[in-house]
């Protein structure tokens, strides 16, 4: 099998991204039920939990106490090679809900507000259109506001029990007790929860080799296992309720974690500790042939499946189980159901901005080897992230590093730079400590994985190398949100009781209700109105604001059907008409050349695109070592302080400050710290923090920025607060 099932050509990918996408998505080819109206279909129930890796008894962890999930695993299939696409919740859930890589649809930065292409839908919308009752209780975190078309109910009250008799359901329950924040939470409310369970003994806690063995670290790990036990009991309550409702034999149940444990070097990272997740699927006997017709014995109780599975496969697999045709644009592949294909050879993962810190890493893994490409090798692993650094384990790691008391693998996190490439044999080195990238005996493996990685980035049109401030401007020029156009009502000649609803906005979905009834139905076919009845509709598209509600009454004058329009060409369309991504990949290939790349970086300073110029400046700042090299770079970079791209101005100012030119450059960083765009301000704040003592004359501006704690400005606040602490001698 190649990189992905159903790989589409770039031309087809672009065609599907624009033009006829809305028509394709709303057509019977996707929404139609392969099983037919009269064929019984399974209910599907998801139990997801936050920040939980393989620390479960059923995965062989003897320290864990997870009796409910252990029993559940004995009744289902335990997948041993399931992987998140990223080590943090929101971009991971963006991938799950759309069946596409966040690096393709532009939802890869933590807490960004994505504007996916017109074709992108929440996969639950296809289920609703096929007759499923779809509920989500209640976490979304998709990197975009969930459209009204996605769920019949998305709230703390959402439950499968509210569906119509004989209606199949897809129900999601999200358990949040295992979140990272609960590890460090010693407040009474959470401590009271622990009274119901036997606490884990910190003295027996397994401490990975990259963590120091201290009382605080052991206490964190013990509390992590405690909250996993609490999560297990909540999962047990859901399973017990399903059984009492008499639905267990009609329901395929999934349990999965959204990424690894909420501990340092786990969550946020794309080592296996951050992306290898539990996945257990219980298939009742009556549905085993439906799930795997060629081998109905495979999903039998207590079975184990070692096939590689990625989060990008979840959406197409659920559609396959429901008998709904998988849309061509989805980048994953079904591993169960009638549309199941051969197991994949590789899984892929990405890391981009995490909270207030920027980093770019990509990974590819087969069943044995893991390859990582560090696109910002000049940046340390151990960047300070405010939320993460509240963890006692992280505090101990930083303290012991400052005291020079870390040893062995514990020191890796605080290296000033990263290797360009990492390669691990996960069979012999499950903690991914021993980098094999430079070893002759692994040259062939390294080359193979490198090529697979590069091919994946090119084929999926990865946007990660575009500087985020530049990308934000591509998504929403001037920061302006587009609004979905209002629905348009029309009737068929001679059939005034049948109302057709359309929306001019490409990719829009429509929800409606009749006579102000409860809830909103997803529009898939003409609505029949009785005398005096009214229909109220609203249109929505992911990444846009919703339209105004519009009401139509039977007997009103019909309107002309809406023609698809788009206020401006979508960023993906504009991007794919350029060679920007290819040129970004090319300039990052210079990472391998060392100082020999300096002439090419100097040449790239004249590139037409700001992101390429940015990486050229960064490359010079990283690679120039001798006085002669620095002098030549200073002369070339100084004019960049007035570059039309604010991101380039920030990079140039940081480099010049580091080379003793802060008299000319520091004022630019102060100016950019006041920029109207939050991401520009974030880049400026990071740069001021990186230049250290040289930022002291800018203290007043930094103090002012540190007072902004609203919206995305909170990230600027955190960076500036940290910088002030360091300038004042506080760690």
Brief characterization of the structure:
The chain is built from 25 helices and 20 strands. The protein has 731 residues and is α/β, with parallel strands linked by helices.
CATH class of the largest domain: Alpha Beta
Mean pLDDT: 93
Proportion in helices: 25-40%
* Quaternary structure state of the chains depicted: single chain
The computed structural class is alpha/beta
Radius of gyration over all CA atoms, rounded = 27 Å
SS field, number of helical segments: 25
Q: Give the domain tally.
A: 4
What is the CATH topology classification name of the largest domain?
Alkaline Phosphatase, subunit A
Give the full name of the CATH homologous superfamily of the largest domain. Answer: Alkaline Phosphatase, subunit A
Question: What's the total count of β strands?
Answer: 20
Distance between the termini: 51 Å
- Main sheet properties: 9 strands, mixed
CATH-defined architecture of the largest domain: 3-Layer(aba) Sandwich
Q: Strand-residue fraction?
A: 5-15%
Unreliable spans are 1-35
Morphology: globular
